[in-house]
Design goal:
222 residues, alpha/beta, Rossmann fold, Arc Repressor Mutant, subunit A, 2 domains, four-stranded antiparallel β-sheet, globular
């Protein structure tokens, strides 16, 4: 998954970002609203973690504008305000959930998973398709009952394909989802990850098809 973390407390942002990256997520960090808007304008995110009190304004203004633009990216508000009225106000503006500071990192991760499951319409995170059973939260993959070990970016690449079978992803789109905004990524790097993933899926009914000049698509072999 690719997250945008909007938080001006550098120590907290570093801790949250490091924890998320250990789980294989890609995390871009914006320390203010101006940077957050620039990130959203140039990249797609699976989830936004949004602080309220920022140096250049109120995060709720960002949330309001985000929803007014018809973007459906889930947003979890990070707030030091514990009053019920503040929390209700954030939810009414379109927040999917909120976490009150200080928070436990395990709780934040659990809330992220719950919000993402609700967005996908599934109560359970496990994907079972074409002889492949994949748990993106635990990072477990079995192909025809055989356990396969994935590296972090291979895991996120497979998750991306499995969540959108039949959809065509360009190399640029894949690079955007697998790497942070400031990463220098070559097309060859994407080809390497695609090659590794194809090898893992050889015994399944799933196939990553190359569409010349367009990108890649996951097919179920039917």
């Amino acid at each position: 998954m690719k997250y945008l973390l909007v938080e001006d407390n550098i120590e907290l942002a570093t801790a949250v970002g490091s924890r998320m990256r250990v789980d294989g997520h890609v995390v871009d960090h914006a320390a203010n609203l101006e940077d957050a808007r620039a990130f959203v304008a140039t990249s797609d995110y699976d989830l936004i973690l949004l602080d309220i009190m920022l140096p250049d304004g109120d995060g709720r203004a960002f949330l309001k504008d985000h929803r007014a633009s018809d973007l459906d990216t889930p947003v979890i508000v990070l707030t030091a305000r514990s009053q019920v009225s503040d929390r209700i106000g954030s939810l009414d503006l379109g927040a999917d959930d909120y976490v009150t500071k200080p928070f436990d990192h395990a709780e934040l991760e659990a809330r992220c998973r719950a919000v993402l499951r609700r967005k996908s319409g599934t109560a359970k995170p496990t994907i079972d398709r074409g002889g492949v059973v994949f748990d993106p939260v635990a990072g477990h993959l079995t192909v025809r009952g055989e356990a396969i070990t994935l590296r972090n970016r291979e895991l996120r690449l497979l998750e991306l394909f499995l969540n959108a079978p039949g959809q065509v992803f360009s190399k640029q789109k894949l690079a955007d989802r697998l790497f942070t905004y400031d990463s220098d990524v070559s097309e060859n790097a994407i080809e390497v990850y695609i090659g590794r993933l194809r090898k893992h899926l050889e015994q399944s009914d799933l196939k990553i098809t190359t569409l010349r000049g367009l990108g890649y698509r996951l097919d179920d072999g039917s």
